[in-house]
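Each letter names a residue; the fold follows as tokens. Both lines appear below:
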Amino acid sequence: MAAAPVRQRSGPGGSRAQLPPCYYEGYLEKRGPKEKASRRLWTCLCGNSLYFFNSAKDTHYVEKLDLSGFVSLKDDCTRDRNLEAARLILRMKDGETKLTAPNLESRELWKGFLYSVTDLNVPSCLTLLPGQLQMLKEVVDKERSRRRTRTPTRAPPSPLSVPLVGEIPACFRPVSRTEAEVLLERHPDCGNMLLRPGRDGCSLAVTTRQDLNGSVFRHYRVTQRDQGGYVIDVENPIPCATLHDVIDALVEKTAGTLQPFLLEEPYEENITYVSANDENGEKILHTAPSSPLPKAPALPPKQDRWSSSPVSRSPATDRRILTSPVPASPTNPMRRLILSPSPLAQTLNEELKMKLEKRRASQE
């Protein structure tokens, strides 16, 4: 039977009550790097760690596995006495831990929860149902919130005390040697060479990773010269004017086998916001709708000042109105306008009348 998701127990006290929130729990068979046999333990994924108990009712855990050193997670296809069991290899910086889930469904869920709390992203490479994917999304949101609200610790001093000169290459990462190896191994598609601070705080280092029946790491010291520029400290030192030239020199020397490590951090795909319930004050995370914004309403058509109806007249209608006969009502203003001659017309009529009278008189 698959493990029960997010079933937190509130025991009378002890270590379990002091653990981070539990995201997933169930029985797993565990075999550590130095263990010769597997043990069946009740396993709880609390925060970013796995806690192992002898039974589901115990309040004190017997082992803890911090997932901050997570490197990879892959299926183990070797056969087990239990044909339904599904094995899993959890690789950490300090070794491998073999886990066995009761069945394939349980293994997929464990992989989904482990990836969610280590990468803080819902994995897209697993075969899960929509409800299970929504459950993983909620775990990612809770774990991000938990890490933000933890008591901040004083940041360690910068490992590099010498100011860098010139433009910094994009493959520079302020990480240690071990962290650089983990980054390169977890993200092989992003490049296999990164620039980082050196251990002494006065120099830089280049860490590379290549595959040769497993991961092969190499570290090269890069020092800053007093007269300017940098030098790669190998048997035949390679002087370089800038840090970009350091990276280019290593790419050239290896015929393009080494490539700069460029890791693009993930971005959110949806806009989320937190609101409080007015009744109980509980805060809820909402996802803003992804539909496009509604368009502004169109303005109504401008009405003709001579017309009381919003429907515009067609040219044919206008011509019909202009050519229609004027009603015979004496009160019609248009009739008065037509029947009332202008003063200029009256003068012309009088002059024409006088000329006609003179012509008649002359003819007689």
